[in-house]
Amino acid sequence: MAERRIIVVGGGLAGLMTTIKVAEAGLPVDLFSVVPVKRSHSVCAQGGINAAVNWKGEGDSPARHFDDTIYGGDFLADQPPVKAMCEAGPSIIFLLDRMGVTFNRTPEGLLDFRRFGGTLFHRTAFAGATTGQQLLYALDEQVRRHEAAGLVRKFETWEFCSAVIDEAGRCRGITALDLRAMEVHPFAGAAVMLATGGPGIVFGRSTNSQVNTGSAASAAYQQGAHYANGEFIQVHPTAIPGPDKLRLVSESVRGEGGRIWVPRDGKPWYFLEEWYPAYGNLVPRDIATRAIFRVVFELGLGVDGQPMVYLDVSHLDPRMLERKVGGVLEIYEKFVGEDPKKLPMKIFPGMHYSMGGLWVDYRHMTSIPGLFAAGEVDHQYHGANRLGANSLLSCLYGGQVAGPAMVAHARDQAVPEANGLLEREAKRQADQYARILRMDGSENAYALAREMGEWMTANVTVIRENAKLQATDDKLRELKDRWGRIGLADRGRWANHEVSFVKQLWNMLDLARVMTLGALRRDESRGAHYKPDFPERDDVHWLKTTKAGWTSDGPEFSYDPVDVSLIPPRPRKYEVVAAAGGLGD
Amino acid sequence: MTERSIELRVKRQTGPDAEPYWQTFRIPWRPQHNVVSALMEIRLHPVTAEGERVPPPAWEASCLEEVCGSCAMLVNGRARMACTALVDKLDQPITLAPMTKFPVVRDLIVDRRRMFRALQQIEGWIPIDGTYDLGPGPRISPERQEFMYRLDQCITCGCCLEVCPQVSQEGGFIGAAAIAQALLFNLHPTGEMNKDERLDALMGPGGIADCGNAQNCVEACPKDIPLTHAIGEIGRQTTGKWLRDIFFR
Questions:
Q1: Which of A441, B182, B188, B222 could form an SS bridge with A485, CB 3.0 to 4.6 Å?
Q2: Neighboring chain A residues of B120 at a CB cutoff of 8 Å
């Protein structure tokens, strides 16, 4: 009997934390990633990571953090795991500190904390404005240490194809494509983690990296894993519009004093500060994004008549800016060619994050036994809207929970021999790629993806109307049809990215339908999901977790009650502080 | 008036052992193009300037904001990140070629695994006891943190190795990136406890002594990492260790 190995797919924060936890428990890990793990999308996280240590003496606590997160998420998240995450926050920050993350410091040499959206406390630890990069590197270094000790084998530039599922419905390993040799190989695993990130590329242009297709999550969904709350898509209020990408301008820029305005009657109008006096520029992202849409599209006040508003830091101390948000200002300067320390930045909302993802239980296991998920790819912590600086925390906490749960799962299971199961699945996947390689129609896969992105951005982001959602689903089905008429420009059998992309595109289209139809069905407004025809939150009918299951005719939806046992739902109104502060402690 | 266009000459190579060749592509001009977005445009219509339908060039890119380190290549002969190479600031035709100090995988993609191996060689990590809850880490002054943060920006892109006369595909010099990382860990109060192991790794063949002081690395670094300063500092640390080894062993 071969030794029991754990498989981790994805080398971002969640995957690396899982890897470290499993290796620390003494089990060997096979770590798969489409890019060298040090290049994972976690590097793009800028502003920071939340933990309620109360080091500014403001009366902050994990209970406050818990309340802000639940309220910020408009009560859609199951509460017990969110509470546990917020309680773990301080110990996670301390662990990162011990790993050598170059967090900003106070004069006393302690960790510094700053403000972020959706809270009134200084709760966010940060390393300049490249916190995700620094966190990922710290974990990458720890994984390298385990790799040097022989506990971790890395498969970099390998792509997840499918889970291997036995007759009893248990996950027994994966198949993966070597993106250089273009060969599919099977790998046995006593437990499998999908930590494959979000689906930004489904929207074409977003703040996400090119690798964030959601393809792996979709593959698991097509194999029977439930996908939950897919309709909840976060659009970040401040991104730099670009033809290839919407580059993020971190919320921390506002946390450090940046102000949003548009010219009105020849004077700056700070509309967020006027509408939301308590939170001002630091209202949660869904609120800020809708406010910008209102100013630009309803009031017609976009800068120069364009869909853009100003984000201004030109009044702030340049040395402070350099120290605390230098990285993000540098991105703006490199791509736009203007110095934000002197001229206000021109920004507009851009698709940023998926609150939804593979449904997981409190141990991070999906609906397929033995298959786990953590990080943006799971649905667990952010409800209907994620608060800034909570994503890095949820990635790390998810990995901390999932790693030991996978070890326990691996040790508990008496698993029979696989009897050719793995090889059969690898053959099935290899045959699929061989078929793709022969496709000789007239459609271009990248052009189809662009069309998908334009439709999804137009109709399944900030403002949702049922007629347009239905039209989008019709379009997605048309695109799936046209997918069958793709012709490959590249028939090479070495490092052929097009072959892999054609498969990803199919997976993205399936996931896009889950998001679109989930939104179509949910006739209410909650967090990031906003329908002008149904402007109120409707707890009677829709305080429910959406669960999509794959069928050949499209997603089949079911709904679970939300565990609101710890904080009773209350109206979400950032116009007043008292509504947010109603914590029963 | 003819429509404005962007012309790109791309060095192609179908695999590690194949002969390289050049192809020219032309795409419509648009504001805000960078080299990666231009390559994306070619994918939509992979036809050469001569009208021949060809496999689109293969390249590596992910974040498109110069923080993942994927897209380093030679743009008009200069090692840099393709995503921040803005088309309107480049002379045309824009020539794109793979870096030369790493084996070519295909077209513009090179194999940079030696850089990750180098990080293992220098023991580039803080040897923590474990991930369980052991309280906060050591205090660090803001000044030290600010310097460490600059070193911690390294995206392992390989530009510093590409421009270094001492680095070759066959091996040789470990390069500036790994040396700067050794300094980063040696500056950390916990990392300092294993300082000597890191210095040992840099005192052998291919180590710090192979630096020829050309100072090209610091010029090429897209993240403005003080590489020559780091090399100088590690040089002092290794000299100190060498003397200690002689007198106190």
A1: A441
A2: 144, 147-148
Residue B80 bridge partners (DSSP): B73
Catalytic residue among A64, A114, A285, A464: A285
**Which phi and psi (to 5°) does residue A493 adopt?**
-110, 20
Structure confidence by residue, pLDDT tens digits, A290-326? 999 999 999 999 999 999 999 999 999 999 999 999 9
Choose the mutation target among A139, A497, A499 for the interface with B, i.e. most B CBs under 10 Å. A497
Looking at the complex, does the CB of residue A498 fall below 8 Å from at least one CB of chain B?
yes
Taking CB atoms and an 8 Å cutoff, what residues of chain A touch B141?
105, 109
Q: What is the mean pLDDT of chain B?
A: 96
Q: How far apart are CA A574 and CA B2, in angstroms?
A: 54
Total tally of structural domains belonging to chain A: 1
Identify whether A241 is part of a domain: yes
- Give residue B238's pLDDT band: very low, low, confident or very high (50, 70, 90): very high
Rounded CA separation B98/B194 (Å): 37
What is the four-CA torsion angle of B128, B132, B133, B137, rounded to 10 degrees? 10
Distance CA B63, CA B61 (A): 7
CA distance A301 to chain B (A): 24
Q: Start-end ranges of CATH 1.10.1060.10 in chain B?
A: 113-248
What would be the CATH architecture of the domain defined by B5-110?
A: Roll (3.10)
pLDDT in tens, B6-49: 999 999 999 999 999 999 999 999 999 999 999 999 999 999 99
Q: Assess contact for A365 and A405: CB atoms under 8 A.
A: yes
**Pairing verdict, β A556-561 and A544-549:** antiparallel
Which pLDDT score, from 0 to 100, does residue B248 have? 81
* ipTM for the whole predicted complex goes beyond 0.90: yes
Task: Name the CATH architecture for the domain at B113-248.
Answer: Orthogonal Bundle (1.10)
Give me the numbers of helices (H) and strands (E) for chain B, helices first please. Answer: 8, 9
| Residue ranges of chain A with per-residue pLDDT less than 50 | 1, 582-585
Within a domain: A334 = yes
CATH number at residue A303: 3.90.700.10
B3 — pLDDT class (breaks 50, 70, 90): confident
Residue A445 lies in a domain: no
Domain span at A240:
236-350
CATH 3.10.20.30 domain residues, chain B = 5-110
User: Using alpha carbons only, how large is chain B's radius of gyration in Å?
Assistant: 21
Quick one: pLDDT at residue A584?
38
The pLDDT tens digits of the residues spanning A161-210 come to: 999 999 999 999 999 999 999 999 999 999 999 999 999 999 999 999 99
Specify the pTM. Answer: 0.97
Measure Cα distances from A471 to A258, B67, B82, B126, B153 in Å. Answer: 39, 37, 37, 54, 45
Q: Which residues of chain A have a CB within 8 Å of the CB of B140?
A: 105, 109
Q: How far is CA A298 from CA A72, A241, A274, A276, A301, in A?
A: 25, 20, 17, 18, 8
Across the interface, whether the CB atoms of A104 and B145 are under 8 A apart is answered: yes
**A427-440 per-residue burial string, b: 16 or more CB within 10 A, e: under 16:** eebbebbeebbebe
Is residue A256 a part of any domain in this protein? yes
